[in-house]
Amino acid sequence: MRALLDAIKNAFNWVSMPSFKVLDIIEILIIAFLIYHLINWIKRTRAWYLVKGLAVLLIVWFFATIFEFSAILWIFRNAISVGILAIFIIFQPELRRALEQLGQRQFVGFFGSKNNTERFSDETKEEIAEAVWAMAKVKTGALIVIEENVSLEEYEKTGISLDANVTSALLVNIFEHNTPLHDGAVIIRGNRAVAATCILPVSENMRLSKELGTRHRAGVGVSESSDCLTIIVSEETGKVALAKRGQLIRDVSESLLLSKMTESQNKTAGNRKRFRKDWNNNHERQA
């Protein structure tokens, strides 16, 4: 029996547990905390799409290494330095904002993540819907952007700050013809209209119909660079359109508008697959 125990002991001699100090445990917890909240911060910015793209490139590099594709590996080796520089250029606004918050010691704002709680109230949803159909009835052009996880602060800064409660009367008055704030987009964050006359990036998607104007293309453009929900009211036809993740639905019904706002509201996570299926079945496919 003793010989058996000695044999087992010798077999596991190579296994050794490192010695831990209290400071080592604290250091590990700090690093884990920083990494966790850094990932959450990345997910709230356009950098999340970059991470996904890098993951795809990493998979390509992995298979290129296995199968020894020399040309692809040469491209990867020579593109790394240029790629790193491009990352800093493309995401300069997000990096600058992060450093500013860090310099101001706004650690909660920098590392804070949006949880799964309700983004805005049912009252706000109803006020938006009421304003949209009121403007559609009289063919008043409108562009309303509802922020979700990805921050729209860079577009907010291009407009005029409001920070007002979202009401139907407010939105209708903003987009009324010949008023100072009617030109541009309104950005809604939570239950507040944070800015008006905001300038949005215009989509370069060649598949969009040529009959669409700048308002529709701007609505699609901002949805391509973030996860926001954009509501567009046509000035020419009075019809309502929705843009989400670069896809456009034209001439939407009141029920579809409410369901998409409910999804954006983050109250029906269990029904998102059904909404996504409806979206894919109805969204515009144009050559």
Question: Can you describe this structure?
Answer:
The structure is a single chain. This protein is of the alpha+beta class and 287 residues long. The protein folds into 2 domains: 21-111, no CATH class; 122-282, YojJ-like (1 (3-Layer(aba) Sandwich), CATH 3.40.1700.10. 53% of the residues lie in helices and 13% in strands. It has 12 helices and 7 strands. The chain has helices at residues 2-11, 22-43, 47-66, 70-90, 92-103, 107-111, 122-137, 153-156, 168-174, 214-224, 254-265, 272-282; strands at 142-146, 160-165, 185-189, 192-198, 229-233, 240-244, 247-249. It has a 7-stranded mixed sheet, with helices on both faces. Strand 3 and strand 4 form a beta hairpin. Residues 104-114 and 269-275 have low confidence and may be disordered.
SSE arrangement:
Blueprint: H1 2-11, H2 22-43, H3 47-66, H4 70-90, H5 92-103, H6 107-111, H7 122-137, E1 142-146, H8 153-156, E2 160-165, H9 168-174, E3 185-189, E4 192-198, H10 214-224, E5 229-233, E6 240-244, E7 247-249, H11 254-265, H12 272-282
Parallel strand pairs: 1-3
Antiparallel strand pairs: 1-5, 2-4, 3-4, 5-6, 6-7
